[in-house]
Amino acid sequence: MPNFANLSHFWVYLSASPLLGLTITLCAYLVAQAIYARCKYSPLANPVAIAIALVSLLLLASGMSYQRYFAGAQFVHFLLGPATVALAVPLARQLPRMRRAFLPLACALLCGSVTAIVSAVGVVLLLGGSTVLAHTVGPKSATTPIAMAVSERLGGVPALTAVLVIGTGIFGAITARFLFNAMRIDSHAARGFALGVAAHGIGTARAFQVSAEMGAFAGLGMGLNGVLTAVLTPWLLPVVVKLLG
Known about the structure:
Elements: H1 4-15, H2 19-38, H3 47-62, H4 66-78, H5 80-85, H6 88-93, H7 95-100, H8 102-126, H9 131-137, H10 144-154, H11 158-182, H12 188-210, H13 212-244
Helix pairs in contact: 2-3, 2-4, 8-9, 8-12, 8-13, 9-10, 10-11, 10-13, 11-12, 12-13
């Protein structure tokens, strides 16, 4: 039988410590991974989406503020930097192949980046959305820090951009396999690069779950699309707004 007195003391200690946010994050992800494994690793049971839902429900149910939660969760947030730098290892292993495929990769990157910006802004404007909203959704396919910086510079809403970036990544990670199968795209390199361009970090994490090759090309796509989005969006977005606004 569990010792509820000890558990109660542990909870009192944990709730007064910044470690609470870290514990919530890790427990939510472990539960999400267990659900993901139970569903036979179906992309529909995306562990990131499940973990976000679990943490959100817990914060709402407990009344805990996001600031208090993030005081502990920032330790995980800090690891994003080293994890991103670590992508250089699989990229280096695939470097000879990437050099040989430079031209198709460059064309795919340009087409993917332009399509992501124009389609998002075009949909918003055609549905009657404001220019501010158009500026907010424009950089949604880049990584969160880049997308938020571009959105703020253009006069968008960075917080909403961050939500859209995460939503885009989760949607891409969930639907990519079905789209690739429907289009009969079997190459792990092509799948990974497309996933990195369209679904940034979350898509890249999904790619690494499939194979190291797919993950390496996804990391390349994610990094290059972040840079290209930061360059293209301030120039391309006003053109689309002028044509459709």
